[in-house]
Amino acid sequence: MKSFLFKTAIVVNKIFLIIFSLLEPILKLIYDTARNKKPLPPIKDVVLTKSAQQLSLLIRSRKVTCKQVVEAFIKRIEEVNDEINAVVYKRYKEALIEADNVDQILSNDTNPEVYNEINCPFLGVPITIKEAIAVKGCPQTSGLLSRKNVTAEIDADTVALLKKAGAIIVATTNISEVCMWYESSNLHYGRTKNAYHRGRIVGGSSGGEGCLQSVAGSAFGLGSDVGGSIRMPAFFNGVFGHKTTSGVVSNSGQYPMAKGTTENLLSTGPLCRYASDLIPILKVIVLPEHLNKLNLDQKVCIHEIKLFYMDEGDCFFTSKVHPDIRECMEKAVDHFRQLGCEVERVNWWQFKYSLLIWACKMSNNDEKVSFNMLMGNMKHEVNPFLELLLWLLLCPRHTLPAICLGIMEKYSYSRQLLEWAEITNIDLRNDIELMLGNNGVFLYPTLIRYRDFLKGKSSGGFSDCCFSV
């Protein structure tokens, strides 16, 4: 089995490399322009440079009004969004009304206990939400033209918890079509462009959120991740993102909604500019029955950490790890070694098949709704071959990545391959859990630089999928 997979992957990889090598000069001509490199307007309002916790303290102490804070973030979005297309729905009017209410509450000499720092840790803090996650009164299309008139009737569970914690939602952000690609582009909203270079992508599917965080468009945001959809946008845009352990945060209220085995891969989590905000956000969105299990308040003794690392994954469709990334990893490893940590280099052959294991896991699900049905808004199965023809005729109804995923779904994996992937997945997961124990940290290379990515290569992206399973 491994020999067959190896030979097949080599052939497919060579085909991809040829295609991307031919396309690279054209793509460079289109996207690598002076205009795309032009810097965005600088941040002028000091309010935008504060963490979510700092903003909450400033508002609560009345050193600044909530309305001033919300207006500052709205102004910032208006300054940059025409260039980056990260925000797809603006909830300004409602946000300003909610800000006035917060200021009114704080103007009272005595505030109800429900608004104290414990119950309302993000009182008045402006945030944004991935468009695929339901926000009452906002569109929830997931980038599908067939859902362009769909509006969320109730809040997703996580959104409701954030609102209860005092957060104010100012906007929703762009995604990939049906949240199943690593670029945030769709025919309904268009493509989100990287703030550092508009000719480059922001990652997906929570790319609009990652991009907006990079330009200080909100205090923090909410995304979701089934195969890298928080982690890749966080890296692509230079911000912090955290995919939570599956099951500890509710995924209810999203489209598409994962079912069965796939639900174990999907996680909802934060994206933000300050690592210090991650734990406070998690304390709000994690389900109460799981909060104590995470030990979020437990003090970490650095010298007791066991550090494990891999400097190569050798996954198919990837290049060798870039020297700059390898150098950074070596510095990090040396730093922890000097702090007294136990350090060990490890190697798992299973990482070579990361993408295949994840794809089999996504497919091997009796409760799974077909991707073509999701593309048809759960009303009918889309014919991906017809959609490909329409795309070639310049009359597209879906993006090319979505169409290709729909076509791939038509060719099911053999039972033998699915069983092999399941066994391999279980063995790898058990090995990692046993190795990490209660104090282990695993360091792994990240994605490759942009130019090699254009050639169809990556140094770590496909292994994001493996960490999901």
UniProtKB/TrEMBL annotation:
Coiled coil: none
Signal sequence bounds: none
InterPro entries: Amidase_dom (IPR023631), AS_sf (IPR036928), FAAH2 (IPR052739)
Superkingdom, taxonomy of origin: Eukaryota
Domain Amidase: residue ranges: 69-356
Protein name, as recorded: Amidase domain-containing protein
Organism: Helobdella robusta (Californian leech)
Name of the gene this protein is made from: 20209925
